[in-house]
């Protein structure tokens, strides 16, 4: 009977990434695990072994390349996944597929290495800086490799010794009936070594707490909530593991004039009664300098003017947004007696014109009148 294609077995395409292949195998391993399919153990065992064989080949770049070129024949006599389906096979499966769940997994049967933790940092910026971009420096408290012991945890002049519990591999095997499961060594915590004479600076941990000063390039157009990833700038790893990443989250401070929504800006423009009534020009600020805004005669409070291209860009869109300016007609305060008298005279003159001068007020009064007539019926 011809062997099935490995990609077909795992249900992935030939262009699938290593991560996609691993996820597909993990799904099949859980689905066809004989312990979960006792009513159909023979068929489950066959499918489980078939999936394991496919994964063992496709997870290895060299074996995968050979298989892609020459097929199954090129792998005969080599590693094809034909080993027994005993306790050792289950131990390998749990170590390879699920090891990362428990903090780093195995590394060729040697001591476990642990990736450093990712860190977060909140960077507050003014709107102008967020729009224009800048290079800033930040101070980040983190865990770094101890200089005194170079991360070994042992006092200078001494060395860690091989763990007697795990024999230096960082893991111990537990037999539970049919299953053989590997776990992190409880004595050395996966390091494979123990320290009899710890470093005085890090107290045997191999890492010390330190505040690091880092340069951050803030791209033009960042907005509130955007994140900048600094690869490898998180906490130092353990046992030779890689450092984590640092995620810088942008927080834009409230602006005294503008509010931002994406690439658009908005602001409120105070306008005097005379300018709103007779028309005129007012000076309007933008992030690139002041511009003149023409206010037509009879402009009402709340009127919004759109100034195209006076907004900002974003990191995702280089096109310039717009500026929306809302007119706020300003009521005069602290008037003199003479000004009050003139205003009363002006108001009386306007009232004599009725709806001609105040169309909104007249329409509103008619609406109110109809409302009271309706509820009184």
The CATH architecture designation of the largest domain is Ribbon
Stretches with pLDDT under 50, minimum 5 residues: 77-108
How many helices? The count is 9
Main beta sheet, described?
A: 4 strands, mixed
Between the first and last Cα atoms, what is the distance in angstroms? Answer: 92 Å
Coarse morphology: elongated
Q: Helix and strand string, N-terminal first?
A: HHHHHEHEEEEEEEEEEHEEEEHH
> How large is the share of residues in beta strands?
25-35%
Summarize the structure.
This protein is α+β, with helices and mostly antiparallel strands and 377 residues long.
What does this structure look like?
The chain is an alpha+beta fold and 377 residues long. It folds into four domains: 6-85, Helix Hairpins (Orthogonal Bundle), CATH 1.10.287.110; 119-252, Heat shock protein DnaJ, cysteine-rich domain (Chaperone, DNAj Protein, Chain A, Ribbon), CATH 2.10.230; 255-331, Urease metallochaperone UreE, N-terminal domain (HSP40/DNAj peptide-binding domain, Sandwich); 336-377, no CATH class. 28% of the residues lie in helices and 25% in strands. The protein is built from nine helices and 15 strands. The strands form six sheets. A four-stranded mixed β-sheet has the order 10-11-15-14. Strands 1-9-8 form a three-stranded mixed β-sheet. Helix 2 (18-31) packs antiparallel against helix 3 (41-58). The longest helix has 18 residues, at 41-58. The termini are far apart. Residues 77-108 have low confidence and may be disordered.
